[in-house]
Design brief:
The structure is a homodimer.
Chain A: H1 7-21, H2 26-41, E1 60-66, E2 73-79, E3 94-100, E4 103-111, E5 114-117, E6 122-124, E7 129-132, E8 139-144, E9 151-157, E10 166-169, E11 175-178, E12 186-188, H3 193-198
Antiparallel strand pairs in A: 1-2, 2-9, 3-7, 3-9, 4-5, 4-6, 4-8, 10-11
The structure holds fe (iii) ion (FE) (2 copies) and magnesium ion.
Chain lengths: 199, 199
């Protein structure tokens, strides 16, 4: 993993931007974008270690790329053993692809002001892609399915997700304002093709 | 400079992408994009030190942002005392804004197969913006005008410039193939607004 090539991530970014340039509706973004993400997480040879490092205290979210007009952002999420997110919403479309390990996803919905499980928790195996959005279901909790090692997933959202004003949901349905930010001060440089040519 | 805000660079990236979304011709890109760059380099309070660090051996070029489809890239160029570029072309439009120090720019053109100076060398003071392109003049050499400290300029190009196949020109007009690459493995994260909100 020390000699990773940025080509796969760069090709994903380029292809997703080309898709969005067609101004597709959300269903098509999730369908065609999901296929692109499935290709990306089918190979675990491209994410630099710095953007897959777990933290002992809590899960991390590393920004990998942001589109110039924030039409989308690409993030690596890293859960240490036993770590999980709070129950949260997104307010924009999102795609989740498991790159390493496995995750448990528990969807929720608001029903008469209360927070209720929206179907059973399910396990996302490596290579799996799942979607969220206000249209199809936007509230969930994600946990590392593994008790003994980190899991890593690659997420794509229809905005600069670290800056979106959204909510953490408490058990009684109360919303707590939430802006996630990012865990990283620097992004990977995926644009230096000269190193690939000379490599 | 240790507590820089990424807002100015993010706003520049967003505004330039909005301009390019209008699919303007090159003259308008250089005119309106040049005005945006002039605003950016009018304040020297936003470039993190890591992307302004000179190298004792040669000038450095740090990628700051690349557009998802490589419609443009933003780079900081750092010349140590006495350093200069070779004579080179770009093959795409470019805008050069001096952020810190001062630079000497010497334009060239090919005349009957030979390389000749295209007007006098001129000094670019802090805050100045200059343009290059195959249409208006694409060959130059840039030098640090200062013998005792680094100069820094912010460049914008109509492609992922580190990956463009272009030329270094020898005195006799011979072209040597040239792909510049970048000096940095990581880009600044300019997308974490949560830090600005809480700062
Ligand atoms: Fe989520
Ligand atoms: Fe140049
Ligand atoms: Mg973009």
């Amino acid at each position: 993993m020390s000699h990773t090539s940025p080509r796969r991530l760069r090709d994903f970014v380029t292809a997703l931007a080309a898709l969005l340039d067609e101004q597709p509706d959300e269903a098509r973004i999730l369908d065609a974008g999901g296929a692109l993400l499935r290709d990306l997480v089918a190979h675990d040879d491209w994410l630099p270690d710095d953007f897959a490092a777990p933290d002992p205290e809590r899960y991390r979210q590393y920004l990998l790329h942001a589109d110039s007009r924030a039409r989308f952002s690409v993030v690596s999420f890293v859960w240490g053993p036993g770590q999980q997110t709070p129950i949260h919403d997104h307010t924009v479309w999102g795609l989740i692809g498991v790159l390493r390990g496995a995750e448990i996803s528990q969807p929720y919905r608001i029903d008469g002001g209360a927070l209720v499980a929206d179907g059973p928790a399910h396990r996302l195996e490596r290579g799996t892609v799942e979607a969220v959005s206000p249209r199809i279901g936007d509230i969930h909790r994600v946990s590392n399915a593994l008790a003994d090692r980190p899991s890593v997933s690659i997420h794509v959202y229809g905005d600069n997700i670290g800056a979106v004003r959204r909510s953490v949901l408490l058990d009684d349905g109360t919303r707590k304002p939430f802006i996630s930010g990012y865990s990283n001060n620097t992004l990977p440089n995926i644009w230096d093709l000269s190193r690939e040519v000379t490599a």
